[in-house]
Request: fold
Amino acid sequence: MSNPLKTSLLTLDARTKKRNAAETRFRAYGIAAIGAGLAMLILLLVTIFGKGLGAFQQTFVTLNVPLLEEKLDKNGTRDLEKIKKVSTFGYAPLLKKAMEETLTEYGIETNLKSKKQAALLSKSAAAQLRNYVLANTDMIGETVEFTFLANARVDGYLKDRVTRESIANDKSINAAQLDMVDALLAAEVIEKRFNLSFITGADASDQRPEAAGMGVSMLGSFFMMLVVLALALPIGVAASIYLEEFAPKNWITDIIEVNISNLAAVPSIVFGILGLAVFINSVHLPQSAPLVGGLVLTLMTLPTIIISTRASLKSVPPSIRDAALGVGASKMQSVFHHVLPLAAPGIFTGTIIGLAQALGETAPLLLIGMIGFIASNAPDSVASGFLDPNSAMPAQIYEWAKRADPAFYERAWGGIIILLVFLITMNTIAVILRRRFERRW
Amino acid sequence: MKDTSMDTIKISAKDVQVYYADNHAIKDVNVDIADKTVTAFIGPSGCGKSTFLRCLNRMNDTIDICHVEGDILIDGEDIYDRRVDPVQLRAKVGMVFQKPNPFPKSIYDNVAYGPRIHGLARAKSDLDEIVEKSLRSAAIWDEVKDRLDAPGTGLSGGQQQRLCIARAVATAPEVLLMDEPCSALDPIATAQVEELIDELRQNFAVVIVTHSMQQAARVSQKTAFFHLGNLVEYGDTNQIFTKPSDPRTESYITGRIG
Reply:
């Protein structure tokens, strides 16, 4: 024992080997965990883009429509009130005729009745025609070229959602019609291209998935975010500054602090039912209004903003406060001149992340009626933007996803892409703000 | 080093007690601090010298659990009187902290901040003058005069500390408190700051807390030795370092305690 065995540095002893093995294993677990996360992300993105990109493309039919005077303005007076009396129903014969003429023009033979031929068009086609005529009464009697949306089934056929096998039990389209579509496709009367109105347009009824768009619900979300920003930012920042800088540290502030943290974890649907009880049932604000949605989301966002603002106030070194007090600044001067500017990047980042959270929130909107109806008209003024019934982006997506027609399903995925673009943009702005305005001391 | 002109008493503390919650941090401190003099507070860590210093401009008010008893008079006025606004007091009693803490603003704005909030300058030219005078009296003017717009945080540690001194001087205080102003500085910067302290004595009563006994011996005319919350001995620096009357002081300055 007096001469212990000397060990060489060149050979690893058993203990070191074991420790190294443990470290290698741990690294492998870490890489596996990150790999699994990345794989999920890729799966998510591939699915979303695979299913949703189709919504940005739509099938259109270009037809020359004769605006027959005997159908639209029997007396030839061009009296707008008289012309208005012709309902969309009265425009259907024009569409049938236009379709028949187009088939003849390209020598496409079909034994379908003209009603079935015109059924390839969207149900919105007649309304589109009518709106044009009402705006341009001088064109009555002329033949005008129109681009109509194709029916969702035709659109689905071009996007391989509808196949000849799948239509066996489908009453709204048959094989002969698909033959006709093939022929019109060859003649370039039907084509698939980018569809801006999916981004800018309004929602449409169950019958017309091809016409549905996100635009109006985007405005709904926009007005809600205005409310959230205008209320949650000043209230949240004022509350945080008071709690962090001025409030005495005692059991009352402790309780407030704990409850703010708890509020951040309250399920959002609870805020929804609170909004229903308070803002709609007690204060009688209008149902489904972005104002109410914004108020509810403000309640939900406040804790997030307060927590992040307090964290960024806390991260300002106390030496800056001492320095300000030391030259005779008042408490408030030290906060507003020195602490707040340094905390600002953190506050803005927290606010943007809170807004992004609110933008994607669906559950509370369920309870205040921003889901389940068709937001078909864009608000025509700022007041109506706040007060008229509207939907919001995630609510619109939910609405589409629960409708029966698979064409809506595609639009739901498309809506998710738009929502994600907004969220990624907001988070990017948050990161840029933090990077740019973060000051070192 | 004895200076006979330093007989005006600027600050007078009587039976000062400081409590942090239940902890009795300062016990029965009585001290008269002379004007136009550098007074050094020395003592081992935790002896209460910084706490006592922070009582002199009521910086302890920002600590909730801190509680001060006794009288501290500046020019005969009790600074803990109910009618005294600590904000006004701190303009009169400037402070320099242990770690240089310039605002993350330009050099100019650092110095101009105090005069601005106290309304000391009416015109921009007045402010420029105050800034230049303050930077000169902090012996940093020549180094920064060409880059007053540069951020104060970009200066070296010693320059930052002198900038902080300039900032404290800019509000035209009557007393300057320095809480270990050189502890974060290298020996060269320390020497510059010490030289500066000696010049500042012309205009202010300077009270400096220091860990370094050599520093206390170099810059101060009066020295107070604190131990465990008590003011053990207070007198001329020469006498404290050569013929201390209390055995605890002797142990400390010879390195046996501390």
Notes: Strands of chain B lie at 9-20, 23-34, 38-42, 66-74, 77-78, 93-96, 175-179, 205-209, 222-227, 230-236. Chain B has one domain: 4-253. The interface with chain A takes residues 57, 59, 62, 64, 87-91, 94-97, 99, 101-104, 113-114, 117-118, 153, 164, 167-168, 170-171 of chain B (CB under 8 Å). Confidence is low (pLDDT under 50) at residues 1-6 of chain B.
